[in-house]
Specification:
With 151 residues, the chain is α/β, with parallel strands linked by helices. It has one domain (23-150): Response regulator (Rossmann fold). It is 53% helix and 19% strand. It is built from seven helices and five strands. It has a five-stranded parallel sheet, with helices on both faces. Strand 4 (100-104), helix 5 and strand 5 (122-127) form a beta-alpha-beta unit.
């Protein structure tokens, strides 16, 4: 077999592997609470196909980490005073379009805030209170949402 044929075969194999072997989903977490960041990371990474590649405590860190690590999805608490809320969503969608999944206390979120979040790019809201109250919720509920949102 000639060298050029080997090169073509090698490239075809690489493309086939990319299509057939799932890549890890890269997640960026944005939350000002260390405890919540660690809990979410630990729960999400129980799935071997998901990797938390960065954890940010404020929007400045999140913007830099998004630029550096190119996550597949961002999970953020829009009610967190350090998250920057709607303005952060607008900027991320404008410069680094990524699916953004909100993890917030649904019963504390004003309807207008939720509506504004969806208008500027949030794809779904997961109730943070439920995640922290029930043991299997993060893995059984959050992980499938991450996978669906990035497919």
């Amino acid at each position: 077999m000639s060298e050029s044929n080997l090169s073509i075969l090698n490239n075809c194999c690489k493309e086939y592997i990319k299509e057939k072997i799932p890549q890890q989903i890269k997640v960026l977490l944005l939350n000002s609470s260390d405890a919540e960041l660690e809990f979410l990371r630990d729960e999400i990474e129980k799935d071997k196909n998901i990797k938390v590649i960065a954890m940010a405590k404020n929007t400045h860190e999140a913007r830099n980490m998004t630029r550096l690590h190119d996550p597949d999805i961002i999970l953020m608490d829009i009610l967190d005073p350090q998250s920057g809320g709607i303005e952060f969503l607008k900027r991320i969608n404008q410069f680094y379009p990524k699916p953004v999944l909100l993890i917030s206390s649904v019963n504390k979120m004003p309807f207008q805030l939720a509506l504004s979040a969806f208008k500027v790019g949030a794809i779904d809201i997961v109730d943070k209170d439920a995640l922290f109250l029930f043991a299997n919720i993060p893995h059984d509920f959050l992980v499938p949402k991450i996978k669906i949102s990035t497919s």
